[in-house]
């Protein structure tokens, strides 16, 4: 079993897609994360759902639970619903890091090691300079536990 | 909107649950992760799906993509399907870290900050020393993008 056997179509977003649109895509299509593509259609980043959420949280609340706690309920609601003004570009991590991208020949062991190491529930699969789609953690587990 | 309004029932596992059973639960119930409970039924850890997968990957392949690559396809398949002999206890991270657990009063901002900080797609919710269930990233995003 290889990446090409487990890959499925996966929606992509661009760097200038709004965070609201990205969140809507995650919500309505029940995706574990997003593939961000560059102008050539190749994956430039993989964004776990939790990191899309990060943009709804003001900087001063990011690291300090006590500061998130003092924001009252109406304002907390407002923050979470004010995702439209920002773009996916702003949600990307600042430091370079290993991306969960594999070629279509990757074995299930390579996919599992990559997901575990990058803590990403999806791996983007490329073949001959083209994005094929993604292997999700769900697809990998479904295969692993199948009789 | 508070944690108590978004919480849903969530299956739990024990420290001695087999990793195969944990993977089966993730797969069949399409869960983003697992709540591991102690003998009192209280959350002792939260295990993202990617970390359950980690136990199927031999130590020498965890950090080095080149070593995962040399394992041939039949053996790679075998590794991924040999989850039954190990327990959830072995899948837990060795270093102590912040757990995504909140009380039922937490606002959506606190939940979002906690998910972003711990990179966890679920938060376990406790009230008066009892586990109520979990708020998932999906439930939080569904609420945030709802008109």
From TrEMBL, chains A, B:
Protein name, per record: CBS domain-containing protein
Q: Which UniProt keywords apply?
A: CBS domain
Pfam families linked to this entry: CBS
Which residues does the UniProt record annotate as the domain CBS?
A: 6-67
Can you tell me which residues the record assigns to a coiled coil?
A: none
């Amino acid at each position: 079993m290889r990446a090409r056997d487990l890959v499925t179509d996966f929606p992509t977003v661009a760097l200038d897609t709004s965070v609201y649109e990205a969140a809507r895509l995650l919500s309505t299509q029940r995706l574990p994360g997003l593939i961000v593509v560059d102008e050539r259609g190749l994956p430039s980043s993989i964004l776990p759902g939790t990191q899309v959420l990060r943009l709804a949280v003001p900087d001063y609340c990011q690291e300090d639970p006590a500061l998130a706690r003092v924001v009252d309920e109406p304002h907390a609601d407002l923050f979470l619903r004010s995702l439209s003004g920002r773009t996916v570009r702003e949600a990307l991590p600042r430091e370079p890091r290993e991306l969960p991208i594999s070629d279509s020949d990757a074995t299930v062991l390579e996919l599992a090691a990559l997901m575990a190491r990058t803590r990403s529930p999806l791996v983007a699969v490329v073949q001959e300079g083209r994005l094929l789609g993604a292997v999700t953690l769900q697809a990998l587990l479904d295969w692993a536990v199948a009789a």
